[in-house]
Amino acid sequence: MKLSKLFLSFISAIAILFSTSVVSFAKVVGDKIVLGAAISLTGKYSSNGVHTQNGYNMAVDRINSMGGIKVGGKTYKFEIIYYDDESNPKRAAQLAERLISQDGVEFMLGPYSSGLTKAIAPVTEKYGVPMVEANGASRSLFTKGYKYLFAVLAPANLYLDVAIETAVELNGGKPVKIAQAFEQDAFSQDVRLGILDAAERTGSKIIIDDKLPKELNDMAATLVKVKQMKPDVLVVSGHTKGALTAIRQIAEMKVDVPMLAMTHCDAAKLSKQHGKNSQYALCASQWHKTLTYKDDFFKDGMTYAADFEKEFGYDPPYQSAESSAALLVFKDAFERANSFDKKKVRDALAATNMQTFYGNIKFAEGGQNVDKPMVLFQVMCDDAGKCENKVVAPLKWASAKLIHPIPKWSER
Amino acid sequence: MNKNIALYAAILIFGLAAPFVFPAFKVQLSILCILIVLATTWNIQGGEMGYNTFGNILFYGLGMYLCASVQVGMFFPLAEWTESGGEKTFVHTPAQFFQGMAAGLVVAAVVPTIVAGLIGYAILGLRGHYFAICTLGLGVAAGEISGGIEIIGAGQGFTTPPFPNIGSLEARGEFFYFLSFGVLILTFLAVRAIYSTRFKLILNAIRDNEDKAEAMGIETMKYKIIGWMVSAFFCGLAGGIMGGLVGYIDSTDVAFDGREMGVFMVLMAILGGKGTLWGPVIGATLFHIFKEGFWTFFLGWQYVALGVLIVVIVIYFPEGLMGWLREKYPERFGEVVDEADRKAQVELK
């Protein structure tokens, strides 16, 4: 008898706990527009998750302090509810559900990485919640017919195909031999598809095609093959850890390859962490501070970089810049919709056509940004060992000439 | 017996009413049901049989991939569905969705059961730490292998069919909640029925002294395999539902999630008290509530808080909550206590 009483009281305790823990935020409270975001504060994407969060916070502060958002003759301010998705898609999907159904959020900002965005998009789509995301570049996000998903960045398959084309061009228009290694996640696999396309276009041959594990700390097996087979280009993509691991082991093993193309060099702070070892690495980037785009809030890339550095103590990687841009897009859409109706805001987002410090933003049918090309930069160091990322392609913004081929380790 | 019926009725009513009383918590409640299923089935090995398995996640992940694959494959070409960057969009009609889900769940339950039989035959001869390590390897290997199979999405992940647009927005949550609650009841009743037979005694005999059990003429291998197959059946079902609920399957982070689910199921069973019927249920419930709470109030530190909780449990409740209660109030567990005997035991310590 006592035992069953115990159970009953246990169950009622749970009931009470549940009913009291419903904190009702609404989409708009007083003069605040509440946005929801699941961010990777822990787990394998934690460093990029923080870049994303810093980007969001920077833009929220800036927009709020510069007059906020004007809707229906009233001024509103942005506020973001954050949760930690632990770099786990399962958690991210649950959190999206939680933000929408429990916290009452009606407008979402994206998480970090394509995989997590893929997990969240079905949820926001189901509830018709507009999501502006800045860190999910996988092409497969934009082919599913999502109506409420908007990405301020160019799709992942465009990241590095320019590098292959450049390599072919520098090879006198002749096909090149490509070695590639990609992490097994949605983003990197899409970068891989871009390379496959580029290889087919240029008639180039892929001689090494490796998959890297998710907890990426070692890729020596691939590098041994690279040493043996001497490809013209080595392509590596695996988020921040991929970039760091590649540079560390290439330097350790003294692997000579004429061109090294990567992603996430700036997010990994490669030039700072590995100094001269990272020299000559060619990196795909959504944004670079020297680009000449402008807006009213952050002025331009250089000003943004300086302000960001003052606030967070490091040079902003493109992940932060694109995250800040997401807020600018939301502000613009709210003001044009002049309403908090989800459908109207969604339509306003779809009609976005604006320039931000980060680049032009205009969404295609599938939600990807089609008005902003990728840039390639190369890590270049001076004799004192101070390294900097300099844009080398496209030529319109190039501030330095591409150094090719990469000098051999014995000559460095 | 009457009291028990009142208790079960109360829980059943609570379970049926929950999604309507707390509509915002449907997803968490569904996950709670899945967690209880996982903890309860783990308990068959870890608690009753004394075989600490980390391999049950294998059946869970297998069920997840199988259910989604069948659901898609029955109506559309699976390879085109999962093709990385696929340009095609397929839409399930409501009838297709539910038929696919039903068939998927059957496959998700049956195949892991067979797999458990085969693997069990091969490795259940191992004992103690060797068995634990071997099963740990199973989960890790499955994650890495499935991450390389193109037809189920490989590293790109597998987006499961979206719930059809029928009824209100709440329909999806209610569907998955009642599905998982149904599986929970099924699991509980099945395990309860098993625990009232000789089968449980045999499992306990294996736990307490396997050699002696064998010497008494019990075919221990047979029972160990059957036990594992029972667990696999329900783990597969749980996985299948979870795949649909999450909507996106990733090889190592969602399906063969040994680091989280694989460890959680052990933790929950231990927290509640392994080797009891109710222990895993209570353990899973408490664990889930604590975890959700930490998640809200200790943003970014939730695992630290969880770690502290685990340390506290291990130090103060080494036998789990049920074990602790049993020690405190043995009479209520139907044990006859002889005061003198108890004192003598205390003195012996």
Short synopsis of the structure:
The complex is a heterodimer of chains A (412) and B (349). Chain A folds into 2 domains: 23-154 and 291-362, Response regulator (Rossmann fold, 3-Layer(aba) Sandwich), CATH 3.40.50; 158-285 and 382-411, Response regulator (Rossmann fold, 3-Layer(aba) Sandwich), CATH 3.40.50.2300. Chain A is 40% helix and 21% strand.
The average pLDDT score of chain B comes to 88
CATH topology of the largest domain in chain A: Rossmann fold
- Calculate Rg of chain A over CA atoms: 23 Å
Termini separation of chain A: 82 Å
Q: Strand-and-helix sequence of chain B, N→C?
A: HHHHHHEHHHEHHHHHH
Mean pLDDT of chain A: 88
CATH superfamily of the largest domain in chain A: Response regulator
Overall spatial form of chain A: globular
Helix content of chain A: 25-40%
Backbone shape of chain B: globular
Assembly of the depicted chains:
heterodimer
Descriptors:
heterodimer; A: 412 residues; alpha/beta; Rossmann fold; 2 domains; 7-stranded mixed sheet; 12 helices; B: 349 residues; mainly alpha; two-stranded antiparallel sheet; 15 helices; 74% helix; 1% strand
Characterization of this structure:
- By secondary structure, chain A is an alpha/beta fold.
- Chain A has twelve helices and 18 strands.
- Chain A has helices at residues 2-20, 46-65, 89-102, 114-127, 161-170, 186-202, 220-229, 239-253, 270-273, 301-312, 318-337, 342-350, and strands at 28-29, 32-39, 69-71, 74-84, 107-109, 131-133, 149-151, 177-183, 205-212, 233-237, 259-263, 282-285, 294-295, 299-300, 353-356, 359-362, 375-381, 387-393.
- In chain A, strand 1 (28-29) and strand 2 form a beta hairpin.
- In chain A, helix 3 (89-102) runs parallel beside helix 4 (114-127), helix 5 packs parallel to helix 6 and helix 11 (318-337) crosses helix 12.
- The model of chain A is unreliable at 17-25 (pLDDT under 50).
- Chain B has one domain (28-318).
- Chain B contains 15 helices and two strands.
- Chain B has a two-stranded antiparallel sheet.
- Chain B is an all-alpha fold and 349 residues long.
- Classes of the chains: A alpha/beta (412), B mainly alpha (349).
- At the A-B interface, helix 1, strand 4, helix 3, helix 4 and helix 6 of A face helix 1, helix 2, helix 10 and helix 12 of B.
